[in-house]
Each structure stands twice: as C-alpha cells, then as structure tokens.
User: Fold these one by one.
Assistant:
Number 1:
Amino acid sequence: MKVLFLGSADFSIKTLEVIVKHHEIQLVITQPPRPAGRKRRLKSTPVADFSRNHGIPLLEAKDVNSPEVLERIRELNPEIAVVVAFGQFLKPSLLSSTKLGFFNVHASLLPKYRGAAPIQHALLDGVTETGVTLFKIDEGMDTGNIALSKRVKVDPYDTFDTLYERLSKIGSQLVKDFLDDPSTPLKPQFGESSRASKIFTEERFVDWNLPAENVGNKIRAFDSIPGAKSKLNGEVVKLFGFKGLSMTSKGKPGEVISLKGHALIACGEGGVMIERIQFPSKKVIAFSEAENGHKISRGSVFDS
C-alpha cells in the first residue's frame, strides 16, 4: 500500500519501522528543526533522522496545511496517511487528500484522554488500565471513528518512559494490522470522554500536602521527561524513581523522614519513596549520593 506518514516524536519510530518493512512510504512529513540544548542548536526530529538514515523521501514542513504541501501530496496520490505524534493541526482540505483518509495513533482508549498528553494524564490519575487507539481523523480533537484499539494494564510502578515504550509498540502493531486489512469497519467512539491537555510547568510541581499516592503518581507521570519539580533550600530540583508508598509514615509534608538508598518523604497522608534527584544544571543522582555530598539530610524539607 502507498502510504503518506506524518510524525515527529520518537513515539512514531516503531510505527515507521513497521510500515517501511511492509509497505511503500511515498513521503514522510515532520516538523522542521528547532533549537535544542543549552547551546540552542537546531535539532531535527527523530522521524527526520530515521527517514534520512533509511533513504525515505522527507519533507520538514512548518505548515502541513500550506498549498505547496497539499499540492505535493496530491501529486503523489497516496492511498492512506498514517499520523503518529506529529504535532500540527490537520485541516479538512488536507484530510481529503488521500483515498482512505488520515489515521492517527493515539496513546489512550478514546474517548478517554483526548489531547496532547494522554500518557501523563493517565499516570497522574493513577489508572490501572489504558491503551492505544487507531482512529480516522476528522475535524474534531481526537473524535474520529475507531479502526482498532487495544487495552493495556498499567503497573503501579510504570513511569512515563515505560508506558510510552509499551504503547508505541502496540500502536505500531495496530497500524500493521489495519494496513494489512484496511476494509476493517470503523466504529464511532462511545463512553465518557476526558481531556489530556498539554502539561504546563507549574503542573509539574509536587504538592506535598496531597496524599502519598497522588505524589507518587506525579513522580511517575514525569519520569524521565520532563521531571516532577519541587523546591529544596531555595533551589528547584527534579525528582525521579518512584519506589513505593509508606502509609504509616508521619512527618511534616515534604519532610525527609529517612535516607536509606532512597528518600522517604512525608506527604499529607503517608509517605512516598523516591530514588533519584537532580539539582539545577547537574546530572541526576541517587539520594544516597546527594546525602554523601551534604546536599540533603534527614529532616530536610521540600517546599509545597
């Protein structure tokens, strides 16, 4: 099958790999290079790097809906478009440019967690189950008819990284299955919907007055990117490595109760065990290393 692929983040790569093996990719469209790192050097997307390395025709488009891009797509006349973690809104004129339409891999069981950050919001909510949905894009926000979906159990110790990896693999399999049989009947979404809007910086700060379970969920949701935040001795630090809960722990919210390889930190109810910390402009280190370097000690208090 002749496929147009739109993607940017590394969540897209496993799907791209599957399509390359089994179908003809006429063109990959991705976001243009952007400044990254301390030196703000232009950096291509992971999808752009993959495409160049595999000799796949590539277009880095600032506006995928522009007349120029649309004309190129129509010249290619692809049968179907697959979209994974692309990052631009697709207008109706673009959605009508392929025979079968545009199909998107979304990291939730739609209509739950419509929006830009479904994995983070699922972890923040402490869900025990989520999944992946392949759906046909319409003019709404993740509202199109569903082609395929698959449920996934969420482990209590899953982080953004582990769930991201698992869901990206499942998404690639759904795309393979659908491209092998594109006559699969589409079904409308049903059930209660919810939003998973973009995460803003202030949402990453830990509120130690909350129960330990909520604090643990926040650590998991932003591990390892971009990292849950808190203040310690006037510095903004990041926290990683959720190790579990201690519901019998008592102390002032944010207080380090013990340091035994990991930190046990008191919350509004119970305590949370965390493995690693990152101080400003430093690498991520274990709490034991931070203790040895006199950066933290028992009785230290994180600000809420």
Number 2:
Amino acid sequence: MPAPAVVDTRYEILEEAGRGACAVVYRARDVTSGQLVALKTLEPGRVHAPSAVDRLAQEAEVMARIEHPHAMPVFDFGWFRDGRPWFVTELLGGEGLDTRLARGPLPPLLVIRLLRQVCDVLAATHAQGYLHGDVKPGNLWIQSVWEGLNGPMPIVRLIDFGLALSLQAAHAGRRPAAGSPNYMAPEVVAGAPADGRADLYGLGMVAYEALAGVHPYETEGPARRALRSRLTGQPPPLVFVAPGVDPALAAVVDALLARDPAERPASACALDDRLAELEARRVAERVAQRVPHASRPPRSRPLALVRQAG
C-alpha cells in the first residue's frame, strides 16, 4: 500500500489527489481537528533514490521557512518506517494556471495582479536564500478569482518547491536536479551562474503565455530544439503575437525574457514596482469609465446684471 490508512495516528488517508514523477499527494483528514489536508510523500519505489528523498525533505524545509500567504504552509513532517519522508500542507481548492490557460488567454489586469502576487512570494523565497527553480503555469495554483468594481482579483499560490535550489549553489552554476525545459532560463540551461532573475525568466514565460495564449517558443517543437533557441534566439515580441496587449505591459514581459539576466528587472521587488504602476493606471482607466461625465453647469449671470435686475 502506498501509504498507511492512518499516518502518524493522526492523518487518515482518503484518496489520491495527484502525483508527479516521484511524489504522490493524498487528500487526508486530520482526525484530531476534522480538517481536510494534503499529505505529500514519495512513491514507495523511490525510497532507494537518495536524491528523491533529499529533495522531498528539502522541499518541506524550504516551504516551512517561507511564511507567506501566497506560498504553502507546512503543518507537519515525518518519516515512514521504510525511510520515505512525508509532510502535511493545506488542501487547496481551485485549479492550476495550466488548466485555466487551456481555455484561452487571461485579461491583462488579471495577469498583472497574478504576477504581482507571485513576485511577492518569489521575493520572500529569494530572501530566504533559495530559487524556486520551476516557475511554470502548473506550479501556480489559482484558488479563486472574484470580480470587483476595479476588475478581477485572484488569489494565487506558488506550489511545488521540490526543485528549490540555494542561491549559493545557483551562483556556483549548479542546475536544479530536474525541471521544465520550456520555462528554464538561458543561464540555467547553460549551467552558468544564476540568481533570482532565473525565476523571473520563468515568470516572464508564464506572463507571455497567459496574455498571448501560446508559449513564447510554441513553434519550436521538441524540448531540445526549444532549449537551443533559448540560448541563441529571442521569442517574438509580445505585441506582435498579442497586438491588443498594452505596449507598456508587453515591454515588461519582453524584458523578463531577455537572454542576458542583466537586461531583466533586477529583482522580484523591482518587477513588482513596475507592475504596480501598470495596475494603478488600468484601475484609474476603469474608474474613469464608470464615472459619468458631469454635464456642463449653466452659465451664471454676471454679478453686475444681477444687481441691476435687483
């Protein structure tokens, strides 16, 4: 059996909620509180793969350090008798951004607000000394989107820190143990020194796809060819693919996809500052559209005439 019926005498396994290459996530119930939670562990066959064991244990450690509303909390951690680590986190409703994008591109204001939330949690991750290492639509979880007077307001979580890499290791040119080639920064592909701007590159890929409805290298075919293009080419400017996108927003996205990290925003905080300006402008435009233009007041009679009439 992949997991006991009750883990640590506390977490009752209800059903499988999802799985990846090495790990599996179960929907579980905390029998002490009745709360539904998610329990993540390795497939039984992976217990003999030390790298997989280390990665899952490190994932729990990194997540526990990043106390942020757009990350995932770690409620509990332990080990099965066979040597597999497990940890318990929040059970999320909603859907992955990859699932949402399968239905088409997103409104620009929604994309801006989504990006700002991810910037915030990436800044917290980098401040703790880690790269996320795998920023992609499948690792951005949209819990909800509600429509307000000033446009759509999402609640987004950055999930799956299984490929998190210390900034110290990234500076030395180490690459994540695995990753998603379609969202990998050129310096990571090349094994060159990297920093937080590698995560921003992945976020730029996400932004391009969310606004245009296609991946920046959609026409490149196999992953190996796409990786070569990442090192030698540049995707088409966003305004060419999605001409309806605000040129100022498109310019930010294009800057995120620069091959040279020095040409990207310097940090997640710097990117957030630029996005905040774009958001404020779009909100102001929406407000201006809602407020009816006041009719011109009637011309008043000159005071001298008023006195004469009196």
Number 3:
Amino acid sequence: MSVFISSVRHRPWLTQVTLLAVLLGALLALSLKTQDRIRSQQLPNMRISQLAAAYADLRDSNLEQSKQIADLRKQLTKYQQAASEDNGNAKLLSADLQKANLLAGLVPVSGQGIIVTLKDARNPPPKPADMSQEVYIETLRPYLIHDQDIQAVINELRAAGAEGIAVNDQRVVSTTAVRCVGPTVLVNNVATNGSPVKIKAIGDSDTLGSSLMMPGGVSDQYKITDPSMISVDKAKEIILPAFAGATPIRFAQPATEAKAEQAQRESEKSAAQAPVPTEDAPEIKKSLGNRN
C-alpha cells in the first residue's frame, strides 16, 4: 500500500477539500466566461421586451452562480478548519489563511461600525421655462447621488481604518467597481438600488463617523444642496456578506525577492519625498475656513 493511499484513508477530508476546490474553480471559470461573453458580444437586434427578458435570464443565472460559489467557499472554509486540527503547523497556516480571506472579503464578517445612507435630494429645483433640457440635467447633478459620491464615502472609510465595507449588501474588495447606469448602481457588476444607497462599514464607529462628518469632509458637500442627502448611523453589530463574484488572476503574479525589495525601496523613497502639508495648502485653508 502506498504512503499516499494510506494518507488519504486516514484523512478523508483531503478528498473532499480537493473536490470542492475543483468544483469552485469550475464555477468561477464559468462565471468569468459568462461575463466575458457579455462584454465581447454586441447587443442582438431585438426588441426592448426581448432584451429585458434576456437580461433577466442572465441576471438570474449570475445570481445563482454567485450563491453556489458562496456555499462552496463556506464548505471549503469548514474543511480547512478541520484540516488545521491535525497538527500545530497546519493550525498556524489555517489562521493565516482565515485572516487573508477576511481581509480579501471572501468570508462574512461582523462587528461594530456605521451605516451611511445616500439618497437623492427631497426637493430638487424645478425646471425654468427658459432653460434647455440639457442645461437642466446638469443643474440637477448636485441633487442626485452618483458613483463618485459613493466612491468618496468608500475612500474616507478606508482611510479611517474600515476593516470591511459593503455597498447595497455587495462586499467591496480590491477589484470592486462602482458605476451608475441611469437609476441603477452597479457594484461588482451586480445591479443594485440607485437611491437610497446603503454603505455599511465595520470598524471603530466613532472614528468612521468622524471621518465623514469633519469640517470640509464628505458631508459638507451636501450642505448647500440638501443636508438630508447623507446620514450616518452607528451600529453595535453589522454583518457583511462574503464576496461571491469571480476572482480571476490573469496577469498578476508573485514578484521575485529582488524585484519585491526594489519595489519596496521605491515605495519608501516616494513616501519620503512627499511634500509636508502646510496651512498654505488649498485643502488646509478650506478646512480652517470651515472651522471659523
């Protein structure tokens, strides 16, 4: 009897983990292939009703695949935890893996934090009779929530130390794109509500809230239009779902040790050469002016 066969018999979870990993990879590849097909193919010459039906079918298929991926990741995590109980080294590796999955957004997380709500202005200005439709649309822009508003909140939360963020219950990861298409907000290529937009973040609730409400911060831009366009609420417990989309890596690969050290030196050099903010800087002047 070979050593490998004996090892597999004494560790039945090894086969299960392998099968789950293969199945998860197949589903991710299928999801990626579907997305590539949608991007590469032009819209067929169909009526609006037919396009809507085709879109609904693709959306439902994508959602079903996302659910299957999430379930498989959950099972894979359980088997990885069971595998770590065999010895101390595996336990340490499992702890590092769980931390990496948490930071990457691949597992659900919970903790204290804040909920930011962005919504369109309650009473936008009416269209004057002598104003063209094009000019009126531009006039309305500050009174509507756009993708740059959502991205500005995400940036502030990350800078304030948020450990997990979700937009309309879609987990924000390193590859997340937030785009507005008409009244719809696409997060991870998943259509969500355009208004109101719910942004949940886990972290120190006081720090996260202060980062958005500080003078000259994100909330100040809505004071002129409508202060009710943004609200920030603290929460004792927030639960964020795991990212359930495809995570393909086509071009990035681990750098060699020499290249990694070179990149680190260049990063440190760039940080050391960064200018020191002074009170003469436009951003500092604006902040000081808002305080007075």
